[in-house]
């Protein structure tokens, strides 16, 4: 399940955001911010909207923090937990 979520997140980043990477070039362990993928706050806000639209739920204020978005693996785990009703 988490692998499917991770792949979908890579596809969103590659296809919908202004990032010049193919899904297979995106490392799930790399930071989404400066030293990693380099996503800025505007792009992150767009990414959040796309996540909510693609996965069919809203992220709570508590979930919208730097720790949840530190890398794709962490974010995919949060999304998987929400899909299974744990969060």
Please tag this protein with its features.
mainly alpha, single chain, ACP-like_sf, PP-bd_ACP, about 90 residues, Non-ribosomal Peptide Synthetase Peptidyl Carrier Protein, Chain A
End-to-end separation:
16 Å
Main beta-sheet strand count, sense and barrel state: none
Number of domains: 1
Shape, per Cα inertia axes: globular
Strand percentage lies at: under 5%
The appropriate CATH architecture is: Orthogonal Bundle
InterPro entries: ACP-like_sf, PP-bd_ACP
Pfam families: PP-binding
Protein name: Acyl carrier protein
Domain Carrier: 3-83
Description:
- With 87 residues, the protein is an all-alpha fold.
- 48% of the residues lie in helices and 0% in strands.
- It has 3 helices and no strands.
- α1 (2-16) packs across α3 (72-83).
- The longest helix is centred in the N-terminal third of the chain and has 15 residues, at 2-16.
- It is globular and about 35 Å long.
- Residues 3-83 form the Carrier domain.
Give me the secondary-structure topology.
Blueprint: H1 2-16, H2 41-55, H3 72-83
Helix pairs in contact: 1-3
Summarize, please.
This protein has helices spanning 2-16, 41-55, 72-83. By secondary structure, it is mainly α. It has a single domain, classed as ACP-like (Non-ribosomal Peptide Synthetase Peptidyl Carrier Protein, Chain A, Orthogonal Bundle), CATH 1.10.1200.10.
């Amino acid at each position: 399940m988490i692998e499917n979520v991770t792949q979908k997140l890579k596809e969103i980043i590659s296809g919908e955001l202004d990032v010049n990477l193919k899904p297979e070039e995106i490392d799930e362990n790399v930071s989404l911010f400066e030293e990693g993928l380099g996503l800025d706050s505007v792009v992150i806000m767009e990414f959040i909207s796309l996540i909510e639209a693609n996965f069919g739920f809203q992220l709570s204020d508590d979930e919208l923090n730097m720790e949840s978005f530190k890398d794709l693996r962490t974010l995919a785990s949060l999304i998987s937990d929400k899909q299974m009703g744990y969060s």
